Automatic annotation (TrEMBL):
It comes from the Bacteria. It comes from Paenibacillus hexagrammi. InterPro entries: 6hp_glycosidase-like_sf. This is Uncharacterized protein. Residues 84-105 are annotated as: Disordered. The lineage of its organism: Bacteria, Bacillati, Bacillota, Bacilli, Bacillales.
């Protein structure tokens, strides 16, 4: 997550690295952008979240990359609770019922 915020900060001053942007675009499109990586780029967790994809949407917006922006929003929408019987309908959560629901503000 911290590296995404770094990329966002760099993008705001037009200093984002093309390699970072290509990596983000690929993994956002595939839905495989995770919350933590090793120094070698290996995922250390299987956690994906709306917060991760919200930041990549911001990066897409700041850089004018419509494809990254739209892919990010599409991934965010996959976390939306659409169960009309749930008091959390319309919110976002990890689909696995065994995990607690968290909110990042």
């Amino acid at each position: 997550m911290e590296s995404l915020l770094t990329i966002l900060s760099l993008a705001e001053v037009h200093q984002q690295r093309p390699e970072s942007m290509a990596y983000l675009k690929q993994h956002v499109k595939e839905g495989t952008l995770y919350g933590k990586y090793s120094a070698e780029g290996v995922p250390l967790t299987d956690i994906r979240s709306t917060a991760i994809y919200a930041i990549t949407a911001m990066i897409g917006s700041v850089t004018g990359d419509q494809e990254l922006y739209e892919s990010s929003i599409e991934q965010m929408n996959k976390f939306q609770i659409n169960d009309t019987n749930s008091e959390l309908e319309g919110g976002s959560a990890t689909p696995a019922a065994s995990r607690p629901i968290h909110s990042i503000m």
